[in-house]
């Protein structure tokens, strides 16, 4: 009774926008088999392995009509998530059998009408609930809606999911207090609801939540199903209250279906095949026991035998019923989505500007962190003190200073950039899988968003240390030196982005980054001047070498001299560390050109590496 009240309550407050699905979809899956390759020991030698195939799904069938909510139950590893992913059109590989949506295979039109809520809530921790949903609305809703209408949709979702109380709270994360787990889950559901999906897939939407919150979420899903939507979810041990809210239940064990049909008929069915619960118990506990091969009263039989007899019972008793439902025409005429299949809901610029604003908001705490500013200020002042008013006559010191600046502004931006993509990996996968935006607009937004701070910090550093260390006091030398540093930052940032995107793992990327940067630094020409020929080629890739060359050119002229002993003058260009790098004009121009090439090339590598993230069937 209380349940019904709750359901009615939700139904009453549902804003009109989400009252019904635009395109009710009947989901049918027939004999779905999924195999993966595994390495199996074989051959004559112990070490030899050959690949074998393992069946994860062993012929699962069923029909879910609009207005129905299907729960997939089963022990851990029984294949629920795999089946859900397959039904959601996100599983590629060795998948056979047929999965149709209103009688048609998965298409862009189906994708546009499908919401998929993954088990992990992948959300930006610093955004508020409202911001999260508004940005998603701006990115996902079609371009024929105005911005105000999209915001209105987000507001409606907030209202329908009961998120009004926490609408201005931040999402939070591991080390950041934010909304509760249940609220976070509802935000994830809300992101999918925004597109008013006809089909909604959810992977364990209630795991980790208390039973009251779980109940609220399932009630909301029940409401959604009630609006002619097809809802499919995996769930771990629902309470009996929840269990009876599901219209249909699929019980799985090791990839085999053990039951498919109405939740209310499940106990009758298992009693009819000889497995009745001996005491009154939560049906889902009973079903999970069965799927694990545990049955009261049959304790003599071993678990494998029980599971096998349940698989056989399904084949002889239920399979034909399930197949006949599959063969039926369905309650609805197969309607189609007549809208022109546009790949993207927004223009490139539209996506770029929303992603830029969202990125700046999410990362402003990080990019403008006080600790980072203090770090740069301290290093600038330290350098200023150590090299206080250095003069050309102490050439070794001055070249050392220029090389220090080169190195610092190589390492610093590289390690800022290296984490960018590994940190974004889950979000990028989630959003690209649901076709939210183009990779190019995302890439540009992310790299441009970080630029201001990336360029402000070296500028502050250079302005402080330049005058303290007494480098060439002309505007020309200062500005050209400043440009060189910014140029260096952009190239090093590009390298960091590329390493991060290729490796996609923070730890490995850091290791790679330090090794590469150290190699570049060693090849920079300052530490070693007589590099063995077989390794000398590294200098052609060394950002540090080119930067040092350009910085030297900004400070010294080709014919400049310095005091190299009592009453003795020498040519600057003959000083060993300078000679190794060179002060010649052609070399300097070439260095500038090659830096520009690297700046672009590294970004291109990063972009190409990202193309593999979030790629699924269309
Ligand atoms: N790509 C893969 N490579 C190796 N094993 C896989 C792969 N995909 C699925 N499996 C295996 O298939 C089985 C089913 O996995 P699945 O995630 O679908 O189970 P599940 O029922 O959702 O489990 P859980 O409830 O723990 O999430 C597991 O044994 C899993 O290890």
TrEMBL record:
Its main location: membrane. The chain crosses the membrane at residues 367-388, 400-421, 442-467, 479-503, 515-538, 589-610. It comes from the Eukaryota. GO terms for molecular function: ATP binding. It is found in: Membrane. GO terms for cellular component: membrane. SUPFAM superfamilies: P-loop containing nucleoside triphosphate hydrolases. Keywords: ATP-binding, Membrane, Nucleotide-binding, Transmembrane, Transmembrane helix, Transport. Belongs to the ABC transporter superfamily. ABCG family. Eye pigment precursor importer (TC 3.A.1.204) subfamily. This is ABC transporter G member 9.
